[in-house]
Amino acid sequence: MRRAIAALFALLLAPLAARAQAPTVIVVNFGPGAANDIAARLVAQEFQAEFGSPFVVKNTAGAAGTLGAQEVVRARPDGLTLLLSPIGPIAVQPSYMRNAGYRTSDLAPVCMLTDAALVIQTPKTSGLRTIDDLIARAKSQGGNMPYGSSGPGTITHLAMVAWTRAAGVPMTHVPFRGPSEVILAFQQGTLAVLADQPAMVRAHDLQVLAAFSPERLPEFPDVPTLGETGHDLAFSIWQGLFAPAATPEPILARYEAACARAARSEALRQGLERIQVPLVHRGRADFAAIVVRDAERMRTMIEEGGLRAAE
């Protein structure tokens, strides 16, 4: 019996030993410079030191993050392909899209790494300084004022849908494929507002108008919450590590332990701090519960609000 158990564990852990021959791929489902791309590169450095073998980051962007998620769902569950994703492709798109190509349950949560409230941000050249400024300008443009997002059905999209409806201010949704496109649109003056986590604020000297959070954010103490402006809305973007659902338990446990050690790394904390995204670590059980909770919340919001994509 002992020999049989040892043989089984050797078989399950063989992919981990195989890293000496093949790098582990961390798929990022948004473009270079996105918050999960930066987080993945920081985690890859930690894991590379932990396992003593190469970890590479692969950007598979498109379709609001679902292309990268599909890639990992279809990958062999051998521990050599992981996904670092924000909430949208995991908890939103399977309900928002009529055929996302996978379900939330097709991915196994390994650990949560960050959680950041969305903030409504704008270039300082836009002239917008408060939510009242934004409301006035949007009303003056009769629904034609655009707001950006990281894709249809993402949290950055749904949060603005919720706010524009609550404030009674129609605006026009314009999706972008990544941060570089958003910044270019800001610079060209074709876009003035985006609700997203604050990863770009410091790097591009943006103005923050309000936060989708229950309380004021420590990094923006002078910025009001939307509740303070009369619209009690809270949305945040967590990021976490996932594996294909059929990945064996010993492999998931090994990665969960590696996540916990990485979360204690000063390099990871400082790297995330530079993009104003707080390190918030949760293990597998807690993270899985959060994923289930948020998937149900988003499904209810989408169905009750008639927000499902028309495809």
TrEMBL record:
Pfam families from the UniProt entry:
TctC
User: Which of UniProt's keywords are assigned here?
Assistant: Signal
Domain of life, per UniProt, equals Bacteria
So which residues are the signal peptide here? 1-20
Q: Record's InterPro entries?
A: BUG, Bug_dom1
Record's keyword annotation contains Signal: yes
Please give the family membership noted in the entry. Answer: Belongs to the UPF0065 (bug) family.
Protein name per UniProt: Tripartite-type tricarboxylate transporter, receptor component TctC
Q: Which organism is it from?
A: Paracraurococcus ruber
